[in-house]
Amino acid sequence: MQSLTEEDVLLALRDCFDPEVKLNLVDLGLIYDVALEPDERSAPAFPRQRVKVTMTLTTPQCPASGLIFEQVNNRLASMERISKVEVDLVWEPKWTPRRISASGRAQLGL
Question: What stretches of 6-84 show up as alpha helix (H) in DSSP?
């Protein structure tokens, strides 16, 4: 079985949406980094990895923050090649609408 890649994680995170903006977290530009590392102690013993997602929110007062973190954790924890999920919330660099992908802009009509 091949190791999980950053692209695999980002594809999975495209299933997670900001409920207010109706755009996935990747295209919205909220995912800053994905770090993967092997987990040799995982059970079952096939290659599994620990995943750390560094992300932000559109504002520090985001009313949907709990729902967004729950979506990220649940989506990644459901992947059999992931043994542990860590979500690191950061405020620097600050999110701006410039972080929205071209696809996201098209979906929002921007």
Answer: 6-13, 25-28, 65-77
| Model confidence at 19: pLDDT above 80 | yes
Number of domains in the chain: 1
Whether 44 has a pLDDT exceeding 70, the answer reads: no
- Establish if 106 belongs to a structural domain: no
The residue range of the domain holding 84 is: 6-95
Strand order in the sheet with 82-89: 31-38, 49-55, 82-89
CA trace torsion 96, 89, 91, 9 (10° rounding): -40
Answer yes or no: are the C-beta atoms of 57 and 65 closer than 8 Å: yes
Q: How far apart are CA 78 and CA 91, in angstroms?
A: 27
Global pTM?
0.90
Provide the CATH number for the domain around residue 87: 3.30.300.130
Q: Please provide the average confidence, as pLDDT, over all residues in the chain.
A: 91
